[in-house]
UniProtKB/TrEMBL annotation:
BP terms from Gene Ontology: carbohydrate metabolic process
CDD domains tied to this protein: HAD_HisB-N
Chain residues that bind Mg(2+): 8, 10, 131
Protein name: D,D-heptose 1,7-bisphosphate phosphatase
Organism: Paenibacillus psychroresistens
Residues engaged in binding Zn(2+): 94, 96, 102, 104
Length: 187
């Protein structure tokens, strides 16, 4: 079975609610955060499958179309390849409105579980990285280790999380550290 890292998108991979962009509703709104491409490349080199799991309620609310989201993801994948030869293995998204009673929206673990089944993933050897409590809850419910990315002045929400860091670069450093000690890489 394969090991994987499930990444939230907005706030983990790309800017959101920043001075340059409020929301990513078209490809020109996409700005990668520092060290993201290099961090994903490290995961690729360690033989982790890398997936994006993202709630995209803007589709359900009418702010963007499914095609616009696909165009954003094409640009994201191309930019990662161009910057660091980094690869995303698959992307899952929930297009439903916030508070919709759907089966896929995080904090439900559906996106993680479906990707795990599709790609033969051992969830106990895998990680979920996000910047919100819903990401961590989804990862926890799926059976992965969890890493919460916060801003320096942010208060840590009360969630059961394995590690708290300030960037994807720090999250990947912790994953690398665990992968170098065999008894720590398993639960």
């Amino acid at each position: 079975m394969n090991k994987a890292v499930f990444l939230d998108r907005d706030g983990v991979i790309n800017e959101v609610l920043s001075s340059r962009v409020k929301f990513v509703n078209k490809p020109s709104d996409l700005y990668l955060l520092p060290w993201v491409a290099e961090s994903i490349k490290i995961l690729n080199d360690l033989n982790y499958k890398v997936f994006i799991i993202t709630n995209q309620g803007g589709i359900g609310l009418g702010y963007m179309s499914d095609k616009a989201l696909i165009d954003i993801h094409v640009k994201l994948v191309e930019q990662l390849l161009e910057e660091a030869d980094a690869q995303i293995d698959d992307i899952a998204y929930c297009p439903h409105k916030p508070h919709a009673d759907c089966a896929c929206r995080k904090p439900k673990p559906t996106m993680i579980l479906e990707l795990a089944q599709k790609h033969n993933i051992d969830l106990q050897r895998s990680f979920t990285v996000g910047d919100r409590g819903v990401d961590i809850v989804a990862g926890r419910l799926a059976g992965t280790r969890t890493i919460l990315i916060i801003e320096e002045e942010e208060i840590i929400p009360v969630v059961d999380v394995d590690n708290v860091v300030y960037s994807l670069k720090e999250a990947v450093a912790w994953i690398v550290e665990l992968s170098q000690v065999p008894e720590l890489s398993l639960r």
